Amino acid sequence: MPLGQDTRLQAQLQTPNLEFTQSTSITTAKENNESSKSTRNRVSLLDLPAELRNRIWSEALQDISRINLACTCRTLYMEASTILYQRPVHFSSQKKLFAWIDRSDSADLARVRFLTLRLTDVDLSPLFDANPDPHAHRMTAWDLYQRELIRLDGALEALPSLNQLMLVPPDKHKSMFLKSMYVCFLRRIPIRCLRLERLVVHDDNNVLQKVPELRGLAKVVCGSSVSSQSSSALLGGISDSHYKVKREEEVAIKEEFAASDES
Fold first, then answer.
1. Is 159 exposed, middle or buried (0-12, 13-18, 19+ CB in 10 A)?
2. Which residues partner with 231 through β-bridges?
3. At the top level of its lineage, which domain of life is listed (predicted)?
């Protein structure tokens, strides 16, 4: 190869490709510009209107396993708590209801509209204390049931906005103490639940005759008692009664669990 051609080739290799450099610069500038526009157009959840955010929360929190989403930050929790406490809630015992109320704020409890509660027997283990305090009052069975009734009354008082209450009574074969507590609790409902529009009692054992105070409520639905062994039938068919009763459609109920309680 002639000496002149070799010199020109080396000069071409050492000279930068201006067209490629300019093209790269333009491409980079476009990408940066598009990235900047994308960042400016990105909308945060908290930037959305309140109505739209509430709709999103309603859909996202239908599955109880997603409740941890509300723990992302305090702002999201404050907004989501409104949706959480407006959902229908179901407790398989009053013990779980008490624990849930104890760990909830009064403002959140005031949002509760729909409650289903299965009444269960009282824990009588304090009666069998091997080493009772000789200076303390000796607890009797009725003392324990009376204390449970007071707590049930307090639970109704803690839910001032209750609109619908569904009750599953205790087993019919339990003690007279439990039956008496159940009837007394029914008598407290018209006093505590001033906004109640519908009471559903899974008990066809002449409830309205035993508790005439219930006739003061807007609507009472009585039906066959549900077995205490089967929670799946909780919202089963409701037979007709003789007082302001019509067959109701099944309602989707979600259950709350107290982490510190045993199932």
1. buried
2. none
3. Eukaryota
> Cβ(145)–Cβ(121) under 8 Å?
no
pLDDT in tens, 63-117: 655 556 666 677 777 777 777 788 899 999 999 999 999 999 999 999 999 999 9
Q: Where are the domains of the chain?
A: 47-86, 88-124+140-225
The tokens describing 237, both together, are 């068919």
Q: Which of 170, 181, 242 is nearest to 203 (CA)?
A: 170
* pLDDT for 62: 64
Q: Which of 113, 89, 88, 114 is nearest to 99 (CA)?
A: 89
Please name the helix (run of DSSP H) or strand (run of DSSP E) that holds residue 164, with its range, or none.
strand 164-168
Residue with tokens 């409830």: 207
- How far is the C-alpha of 81 from the C-alpha of 33, rounded, in Å? 40
Q: Which DSSP state fits 131?
A: S
- What is the per-residue DSSP string for 170-222? PPTTS-HHHHHHHHHHHHHHHHH-TT--EEEES--SSHHHH-GGGGGSS-EEE
Tally the C-alpha atoms within 13 A of residue 84's C-alpha that lie toward its C-beta.
21
Are the C-beta atoms of residues 89 and 112 closer than 8 Å to each other? yes
* Helix, coil or strand: residue 89: strand
Please give the DSSP secondary-structure letter assigned to residue 17: -
Neighbour tally for 89: CB within 10 Å: 21
> Model confidence over 151-162: pLDDT tens digits?
999 999 999 999
pLDDT at res. 251: 34
Q: What share of the chain is helix, strand, coil (3-state, %, to 5)?
A: 50, 10, 40
